[in-house]
Design brief:
Number of strands: 11
Order of helices and strands: HHEHHHHEHEEEEHEHEEEHE
Helix content: 25-40%
CATH class of the largest domain: Alpha Beta
CATH architecture of the largest domain: 2-Layer Sandwich
Distance between the termini: 26 Å
Length: about 325
């Protein structure tokens, strides 16, 4: 982990630089460790994996399914032979841990980051997202939160989410990356550019080498690990956001009221509902699909609701559960 590397560097009395570890050529690490050192960072959120962003962009643009978009990304060299680390969110989670550790002066590991990948995102999800004025992006989100017990904690999470088209991150397409930093005094800052590739990554590495050489010539040291805050990591159940829930249901009267009742029982407020027919390959209507968008709710309440929906006789399957981010990014 970055923390272990920092300890090793401290023991050896050398500098540790790793600008290229997150978002390639985009300067994100140095602004967090130096430019914003006098500010209080509240939130860091962004798109930090080019492979998944290329796949999701292709699905959005062409209506392709996940497998077809992955095949295209592989053919163009954007995906590894084994894409698991990218498409299941492991790479983005490791980067989120680095960002959270630096931004909040506490040691966060990849294992602390809640993680979901993009393999279950479907063309139907994109159709619903477009109808709602959104797209879908794999987001890495790190933030300070105050839980109900009054304690300040760190939240670090990675998942695919609906993002309103009006938000700057919705316009980040292909293999590009972007990170939005929100700080108490500085407000919202956005960093955008090429997040991978030989030349962009080499640029970041060369910049670190120049900094290390300059420090050696001047007899100085670069920034060291800062973990004075030692904030605990918040469990996912504490996190509140909006949700998109899609389900296939029986095509008969009373289904919508049964579904809505399960949300009401757990005080999850519904903001919008869409119901549409489901047809087979011959175009015959064989069922219905309900899409629910909620107001802000806790992850714990939403998880209980989804479990209850899956147990209803009128619900054939809960096909998708995605967060809706954007107003607080």
């Amino acid at each position: 982990s970055t923390g272990e590397l920092a300890q090793a560097a401290e023991s050896a009395h050398v500098d540790l630089y790793f600008e290229a570890a997150v978002a390639g050529a985009i300067p994100v690490i140095r602004p967090l460790t130096q430019s914003l050192a006098g500010d209080t960072v509240l939130r860091v959120a962004g798109i930090v994996n080019g492979t998944t962003n290329y796949i999701l962009s292709a699905m959005d643009d062409t209506g392709a399914d996940y497998d077809s978009a992955l095949a295209e990304a592989s053919a163009l060299g954007y995906a590894e032979a084994d894409p698991t680390a990218d498409v299941e969110g492991y790479d983005a989670a490791a980067k989120a841990a680095i960002l959270a550790s630096i931004a909040f002066h506490t040691r966060v590991t990849a294992d602390d980051v809640y993680r979901e990948g993009i393999t279950k995102v479907t063309p139907a999800d994109f159709e619903s997202a477009q109808a709602l004025g959104c797209t879908i992006k794999l987001l890495s989100i790190c933030e300070r939160i105050t839980t109900d017990d009054g304690h300040e904690r760190v939240s670090a999470r990675v998942y695919p989410a609906l993002v309103p088209l009006s938000h700057p991150l919705a316009t980040v397409n292909g293999a590009f990356n972007a990170v939005v930093v929100e700080a108490k005094a500085s407000g919202r800052l956005m960093f955008y550019g090429q997040g991978a590739g030989g030349a962009p990554t080499a640029s970041a590495v060369a910049g670190d080498m120049v900094m290390a050489a300059r420090n050696r010539v001047l007899g100085s040291r670069g920034p060291r690990e800062s973990r004075y805050a030692q904030l605990p990591v918040a469990p996912m159940g504490f996190i509140s956001t909006r949700y998109y829930v899609s389900m296939n249901v029986a095509d008969k009267p009373g289904v919508l009221s049964s579904v809505a009742a399960e949300f009401a029982k757990r005080e999850v407020s519904i903001a919008e509902v869409r119901q549409e027919g489901v047809a087979d390959e011959d175009g015959r209507r064989v069922g219905a699909r309900i899409v629910v968008v909620t107001h802000t709710a806790t992850d714990a309440a939403l998880s209980e609701t989804v479990d209850a929906l899956a147990d209803l006789d009128v619900v054939e399957s809960v096909t998708s559960v995605l967060r809706l981010e954007g107003t607080t990014l």
